[in-house]
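Re-running the complex after MR caught last week's input typo. The corrected sequence lines follow. Everything else is unchanged.
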Amino acid sequence: MRSLSPSTHYVRFQESRCTGCAACLRVCPTKAIRIRQRRSIRIVTQCIGCGACILACPAGAVSAATRRPDAIGSSGVAIALVSPVLYAQFPGVMPGAVLHGLRQMGFHHTVDMSFFLEMFKFASDEFIRRNRSTALAPWPLISPVCPVVVRLIAHRFPSLIPHVLPVLRPAALMAREVRERIIPRHAGKGIAATLYYINPCPTMGEPLSSEAPGLIPTEAAIAINDIYPELKRRIESNIDSDLTAFSETHFDFEICSTGDAAFSAMSGGEIANLETEKTLAVHGLEETIAYLHKIEMGRLTDIEYIEFRTCREGCIGGVLTAVDKYVAKRNVQRMVNVFGLGRRLTREAILHLYDRGRFQPDKNPVVLTHLFGARRPALSLEDLERIEETLEVIAGRDCGACGAPDCLTFAEDIVRGEADLKECIWLHARNIRRDMGRPPSEPKD
Amino acid sequence: MAENPNCPLCGRSLTPEPCGQNAQVTVTGSAMAGLQKSFFIKARDFIHAGEASIQVQNILKSLQLEPRFIRRVAVCSYEGEMNVVMHGADGTLSIDIGPDGLVLEVTDPGPGIANVEQAMQMGFSTASDELREMGFGAGMGLPNMKKNSDGIIVDSAPGKGARVRMTFHFREGSEGR
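Corrected-run output:
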């Protein structure tokens, strides 16, 4: 079978740990998982990096394809791009102290996301405002921030690609700023730099900075839960010391954070403070899919912008976080209380950049479809008829014993020549009864 | 459609010539034969409303029809399904896909449409306050179906149920198969 592999761009599979329990089989939103020879295996091109199988596996056989935070800064310059979700892991600790702890761990630069979030929000406001008269994109616009949502759209809802807001997302803006302002300083001295994106989801399929035009530096993703133990130790040992070490930073965006940035870690944070009030914030994989269906069927056109996060409660519910999402939520709410909400940049400054095209993504939606849309070949009408016939023969109960998530997928695999009807235990049971001369009654559910 | 090919009003076949009684008529394509499937629609079941349309979309997606085409069918099937859920009795959503296009049909044996011409007007709605509170009843259902399909026939009369039949043609070049 083509393109079947235990690991994908986004998840790593440890065969020795897999018990073949099939807990991962049905949680996959793109039906990419099969069980073969009692082991979980994936259709690589269909994996969108949502992390559902990581959460579902009771044996810990599936993990994110992130880099272990060992030997950071041992060669060249290490630059940490920090998701605000990291701050939410440490109750009562100021973002500055978290970044200081990271620098003690060996990162030469620590980049906070707050300025880039503000830029993104101004640019989004601007696009939405202009779209009311230009009607370049259909309502509702869909947030480009969660990469799993964008891939889900490319895979399962290609008709919604024009709805994705064509503005560079905050993480990509952040990567570009680093590339333009920090890396040249070191490159001039012949020192190579690596960008480490410290984040809560297994989404790093391709480099972040490839979303914006220009050269692409080395990039790696580090999971928050991998970096958490040592970072926590550093932060705790720093509690009594004064953080004079702030003087070691060179750029304002290396230390600063805001209530807006903290808020953006949880569902509803992205739409908070947007100019338009015709917004929705939807979170969770199932809800996201349900709402994408609604948009596809022509509903929600009175909404201008929808923030989607496939993780529950938003990014604080990410698969690779260290603390419980509700604890993190409380921490975020505390930070919002302390910092308050509001932007520091001015609209005029951002408008100037906007009109120079600084927020336009490099890749247009069509390219996006090709990037993520490496779907299995289309079925023909005859194929669909054969699938229907096969389903009638199977008459199963979506038990998954064949190794496919449901009977329909199994039938499709058979028609594609990738599975064998013999694997169906319902059919097998009926055959045994027939051979024993008993009536072909159904086993009880 | 396989199970009931005749107009509920006059008893004659719906294709190629509809009966014309109380019906909005536009061109339907040549008779198509191909994959046929029907899905049950439960009236007043707002929790599962839209499920039949999603099944239709899944079929079109597995054929990898052009996304804009799928979108047109999706909008029409949803509007049709919701009409049954809101106003009709338990009915069916059927799809018949042929080499040149597809036919979508929404049928229910409910109270029917008193005045089809009026129902085709934008903004006309008989939805109850309760339905309006749920965000429905904008009077866009049939007009939306007309706008997004290549042809629509509405056959209905009070007490006789309703049958909405829509055709969609694969266009040269645009429906990349």
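None of the earlier attempt is carried over here. Confidence is low (pLDDT under 50) at residues 1-32, 173-177 of chain B. The first helix of chain B runs from residue 51 to 62.
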